[in-house]
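Changelog-adjacent note: as of this version, every example in the card shows the full chain rather than a window. The one below runs 373 residues end to end.
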Amino acid sequence: MPTSTARVVVVGAGVLGASAAAHLARAGASVDLVTEAGVASGASGRSLSWLNSAGARSDAYHLLRTVGIDRWRTFAARTGLHEGLRFDGGLTWAAPGESHRERHAHELSIGYDSVWLSPQEVAAWTPGVDPAAVAAEGAVFNPGEGWVDLPLAVGALLERFRAAGGRLRTGVGRARPVVEGGRVTGVVTGSGASLPADAVVLATGPRAPRDLAELGVVVPDGSPVALLLRTRPVDVALRAVLNTPRVAVRPAPGGRLVLDSAWSEREVVVHGDGDHEVRESTVEGLLAEASRVLAGNPVLELDGFGVGPKPIPGDGEPVVGPVDGVDGLHVLFTHSGATLGLVLGEFTAREVLTGRPNPLLAPFRPGRFATGA
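Full-length structure tokens:
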């Protein structure tokens, strides 16, 4: 990437914003990274962060995700972030009355590493799982998958960002792009600071559709509430990510586990003021479900939880790139923020500074939602 003297403001300090800011600063741009609260305090702080391209999706989306996983492997090798970034595979099995045979066949057909295991074979491939909890038909193991602790990864990205001269501004309140004559001219923060810019990257997670709507740009929003539990340290052999019918489980730094599920998210009470209430019965139920799928059925104790919107575009696929009608404004809004975090930051930085579109991002432009598109 060529050296640049462009002034860029990145709004949002989750993994997407931190990645874009680090790549921009490395290329020589003058970069301000601003965030309403703290670093990784939004969706990046409550993500299961499963690095994968499992199951069926569009060819373009699958390709982008596999490239994203490749970038994380390089990042692991270069940063030594071994405690917070692992590739020990992913294991999943179907709910009663369902089957994952077609999923496994699809993965094989597209070259995705996929192994069918009987319940008796699971322990040899991925220790720490109770074979009695596995569906009788068996399970799918994807050896190339992994997980990342996003707060640790964001910290490593910000070290690079600062080393390249980037400026981080936390706790600035809500930041809004300033648009004059159809072009973005900078950002004004909730604390009243005005930051001029040649380009702005909007990486505000589930709030991106709202931010764009204020500029007259429509991006459908399918963001649900997410609930992620963190356990206290526990002695388990699990290294892979588990996606089971009632709970997803992955290891976390310090001997902890993180847990989520679809049913527990649906039990979160959303109040009219936007606050979220998590019932004690939901927490206890999720801990019990996780214990049931782990070898030895250990007692799991809650260390804390994160709750809030999980960014998902209305059609489920990423929304990335220049915003039509607002020159200089770029957006990053996607469900797969962990898997795509590094690669979307890299590609966005290059597009911002060179103006040359990346063909891998062509299907994911925000303009696809425009009337008549």
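Structural remarks: The two ends are 32 Å apart (CA to CA).
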